[in-house]
UniProtKB/TrEMBL annotation:
<keyword id="KW-0472">Membrane</keyword>
<dbReference type="InterPro" id="IPR013830">
    <property type="entry name" value="SGNH_hydro"/>
</dbReference>
<dbReference type="Pfam" id="PF13472">
    <property type="entry name" value="Lipase_GDSL_2"/>
</dbReference>
<keyword id="KW-0812">Transmembrane</keyword>
<feature type="transmembrane region" description="Helical">
    <location>
        <begin position="12"/>
        <end position="31"/>
    </location>
</feature>
<dbReference type="InterPro" id="IPR036514">
    <property type="entry name" value="SGNH_hydro_sf"/>
</dbReference>
<feature type="domain" description="SGNH hydrolase-type esterase">
    <location>
        <begin position="119"/>
        <end position="245"/>
    </location>
</feature>
<keyword id="KW-1133">Transmembrane helix</keyword>
<dbReference type="InterPro" id="IPR051532">
    <property type="entry name" value="Ester_Hydrolysis_Enzymes"/>
</dbReference>
<protein>
    <recommendedName>
        <fullName>SGNH hydrolase-type esterase domain-containing protein</fullName>
    </recommendedName>
</protein>
Length: 261
């Protein structure tokens, strides 16, 4: 009788173990399916709003990967009444360099400008801009258009004084190395309220831009305000920060007109 009972217990234990293994395997399979689905979603640029709570650098990387994965073509490639042919803009900026973060890098990613006219890096902020300064100096352009600040809003904890101090150091470094190069400063683009609600430090754009304008007046260099260009319909990506492709031809035209190129 004891032997029968022992055998029964062993059988029940074996069944229980097998059931647990099967259940665990099904859970892993389900998780893998969900993970694959999540990765597929992240590849699409229309999921950026869900990623906005992450660091800016992660959002920027997602945008860049989406550009490559989707094979998205620049909207400025076609001639219209409002924009020039793409080749004309590349020619106008052939002796110039645009420096900045992911917003600037899109000029190269979308092929609005040649790589020799763009010195930009996703997630870059002014405390870490030295390699980009050296790269710009090596290119020895006639004009440099600087466009920093989006990432510094968060990195510098909304401190416009520290921001403009670092910006001025970068400008003076370029001036010392390239005394004949003209330097232009782009203002930070407006950020939509939904992005500010997620990261309140983004609400310091106006204070940063005011500090930039004062710096430009002090140094005698032009400040370029592009904020009106962001008032176009459907101009923002879903993260509320980065502009869509049709912003870039107008931005290039605004910079070119200020520099007379």
């Amino acid at each position: 009788m004891k032997q029968v009972l022992a055998n029964g217990i062993r059988i029940m234990s074996t069944v229980a173990v097998v059931a647990c293994v099967v259940w665990f395997g099904l859970m892993i399979l389900s998780y893998q399916q969900e993970l694959r689905a999540g990765i597929t979603d992240m590849a699409g640029i229309h999921k950026l709003d869900e990623l906005a709570a992450r660091d800016v650098a992660v959002v920027e990387s997602t945008i860049q990967n989406s550009r490559v994965a989707s094979g998205q073509q620049p909207e400025a490639a076609e001639t219209s009444a409002e924009t020039e042919p793409l080749g004309d803009m590349k020619t106008r900026f052939a002796s110039s360099v645009v420096m900045g973060d992911s917003i600037t890098k899109a000029l190269e990613d979308y092929e609005f400008l040649d790589s020799t006219s763009v010195v930009a890096k996703n997630g870059i902020n002014l405390p870490h801009v030295q390699p980009e300064l050296e790269q710009a100096v090596a290119l020895n352009p006639k004009n440099i258009f600087m466009s920093y600040g989006m990432n510094d809003l968060e990195y510098l904890w909304g401190n416009p004084q520290k921001f403009v101090e670092l910006y001025e150091n970068a400008v003076r470094t370029l001036q010392q190395s390239l005394p004949d190069t003209k330097i232009y400063i782009n203002g930070i683009l407006p950020i939509q309220q939904k992005a500010i609600d997620k990261k309140p430090l983004y609400g310091n754009v106006d204070a940063y831009n005011q500090a930039l304008m004062e710096m430009c007046t002090r140094l005698g260099i032009p400040f370029i305000d592009n904020s009106e260009l962001m008032q176009q319909e459907d101009i923002y990506q879903e993260d509320g920060i980065h502009p869509k492709p049709h912003y870039y031809p107008k931005w290039l035209e605004n910079m070119a007109s200020k520099a007379g190129i």
